Amino acid sequence: MTVPTLDGITAQTITTDRITTRVLFSGPEDGTPVLFLHGNLSSATWWEGTMLALPDGYRGIAPDQRGYGDADLSAKVDATRGLADFMDDAIALMDHLGHDRFHVVGSSLGGLVVWWLMARHSDRLLTVTQADPGSPYGFGGTKDAAGTPTTEDFAGSGGGLVNPALVAQIEAGDMTADTMFSPRSALRALVWKPPLIPEREDAYVASLLQVHIGDDAYPGDKVASANWPFVAPGDHGPNNALSPKYAIDVAEIIGADQKPPVLWVRGADDLAVSNSAASDPGTWGPMGLVPGYPGAETYPPQPMLDQTRAVLDEYVAAGGSYEEVVIDDCGHVPYIEKPDEFNRVFHARIA
Questions:
Q1: CA-closest candidate to residue 260, choices 301, 315, 306
Q2: SS3 assignment, position 342
Q3: Torsion of CA 333, 331, 294, 290, to 10 degrees
Q4: Per-residue pLDDT tens for 149-183?
Q5: CATH class of residue range 10-151+244-350
Q6: 302: phi > 0 → left, psi -120 to 50 → alpha, else beta; which?
Q7: pTM of the prediction?
Q8: Secondary structure tally for the chain: helices H, strands E
Q9: What are the tens digits of pLDDT across the range 224-267?
Q10: Helix 164-171 × helix 183-190 angle, to 10°
Q11: Nearest CA to 212 among 90, 86, 82, 69?
């Protein structure tokens, strides 16, 4: 089921030399291009309001990334390449559209794709805006600001972390909030800060339900581990691609020849990306949800914010620049929860 778009948003099916997918557009065709990359369990739909709010003269471009929305079901994510499949898709799209240079905006998983773009294609980027991005070191399995692995096999990261009950509710197409494991309940608990319920919540839930399901998609495969929490990343799907096992070397970000200015915007109350993220094994380990927790010294929560700040501080030391903006009373998606505050700093950055 394709999610209907807002007035002013145009949807096209575009085939590049990498993938066929739905791409949303706003603004004049000859406008300055702004590429929007969505997060996990979402699609380009989540960016529509932000695209429509762009100042005059900008062209908003938001693809359904592979594994999500109306992207070709046969286009799989090779997790052993990290986020490179997503990065290559983005560059192929902008090449196809004839945009040599562009602004880029990423959120959550999309933010990790942006780290890869900064490392490998910095010459293409006019500016970078990161909205609650994942850590440059990936998600799970690291224990300090330098991204040191908790174990040699990165146990506690990858597809094995996904709750099977959530996957079952996605497969059932559950649009309700009747159980704590329904997609709508998950969004209300972990994404936007309660008691907020976004005006387009139905569209966001419908978008979530479009995630491609399977061992080669979401949640992906997994490998048993002798290390707590006894599961390590597999080789397929976006959740495994997020594992620090396959993360880009942050030295490539810091050492890129060109360094576009970075705006890092985050919600003060984000539960998905923080120094004690709700779905991090280091956060829920002390609760006894998985027996055998080895203790905070061995497996602390991943300090995601500290990691991002440390990399960006090194980026500055190497000649780049960044601004960190924290939006109060806001969760994981400030562009949806606090659009006026987000757009004020975002528009200033791209101007």
A1: 315
A2: helix
A3: -80
A4: 999 999 999 999 999 999 999 999 999 999 999 99
A5: alpha beta
A6: beta
A7: 0.98
A8: 12, 12
A9: 999 999 999 999 999 999 999 999 999 999 999 999 999 999 99
A10: 130
A11: 69
